[in-house]
């Protein structure tokens, strides 16, 4: 049985949405970060960073939301959450799958802290560039790869939900609003949001 270690009102939302989209049977293991449960020795064997979310699947265990998305989509191809390895769309899928932790999250931190970092040294370029590139990609729609929803939409949608809708740390744009509305209309998103609320 797949076990998803999560905590309410946390970054666990991405993986809750993933598992709800997947249709796979899974057990939710509450890991209450308000009590420090994520620092318990048993949990640190699953995720040595002591963060949520984490996932175990038999002998496999991992942390990091985007990695969990990649693992589940590849390990369980019947979920149809990733293009096949031989599919040319796989390259863009991987790029967008990791765009949220690699670009959106650093851009949010840059906006929030008002830190000036030269674009030549910041791996994400600049917050403006991140959101301009994402806006152009989403304008084509309906999903990041076109007609087919994938795990990349889960990481991108979660990142935008956090940055634009929930915490208003990044400016809203018409393409973002339309994309978020499509994400929020998905029954799996709605189920995950209820679970994540605690």
Automatic annotation (TrEMBL):
PROSITE patterns associated with the record: GST_CTER, GST_NTER
Keywords: Transferase
CDD domains in UniProt: GST_C_8, GST_N_GTT1_like
Pfam families, A to Z: GST_C_2, GST_N
Span of domain GST C-terminal: 86-198
Presence of keyword Translocase: no
GO molecular function per UniProt: transferase activity
InterPro entries: Glutathione-S-Trfase_C-like, Glutathione-S-Trfase_C_sf, Glutathione_S-Trfase, Glutathione_S-Trfase_N, Thioredoxin-like_sf
Superkingdom of this protein's organism: Bacteria
Residue stretches making up the GST N-terminal domain: 1-80
PANTHER family listed in its UniProt record: GLUTATHIONE S-TRANSFERASE GSTA (PTHR44051:SF8), GLUTATHIONE S-TRANSFERASE-RELATED (PTHR44051)
Name listed for the protein in its UniProt record: Glutathione S-transferase
Organism: Bradyrhizobium shewense
Organism taxonomic ancestry: Bacteria, Pseudomonadati, Pseudomonadota, Alphaproteobacteria, Hyphomicrobiales
């Amino acid at each position: 049985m797949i076990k998803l270690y999560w905590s309410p009102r946390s970054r666990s939302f991405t993986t809750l949405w993933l598992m709800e989209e997947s249709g796979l049977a899974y057990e939710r293991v509450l890991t209450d970060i308000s009590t420090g449960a994520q620092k318990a020795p048993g949990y640190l064997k699953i995720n040595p960073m002591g963060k949520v979310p984490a996932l175990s699947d038999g002998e496999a265990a991992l942390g990091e939301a985007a990695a969990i998305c990649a693992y589940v989509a590849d390990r369980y191809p019947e979920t149809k959450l990733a293009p096949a390895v031989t599919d040319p769309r796989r390259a863009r899928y991987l790029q967008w799958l990791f765009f949220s932790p690699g670009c959106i999250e650093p851009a949010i931190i840059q906006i929030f802290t008002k830190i000036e970092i030269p674009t030549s040294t910041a791996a994400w370029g600049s917050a403006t560039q991140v959101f301009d590139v994402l806006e152009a990609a989403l304008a084509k729609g309906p999903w990041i790869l076109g007609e087919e929803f994938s795990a990349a939409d889960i990481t991108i949608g979660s990142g935008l939900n956090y940055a634009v809708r929930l915490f208003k740390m990044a400016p809203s744009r018409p393409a973002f609003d339309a994309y978020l509305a499509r994400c929020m209309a998905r029954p799996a998103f709605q189920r995950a949001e209820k679970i994540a609320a605690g």
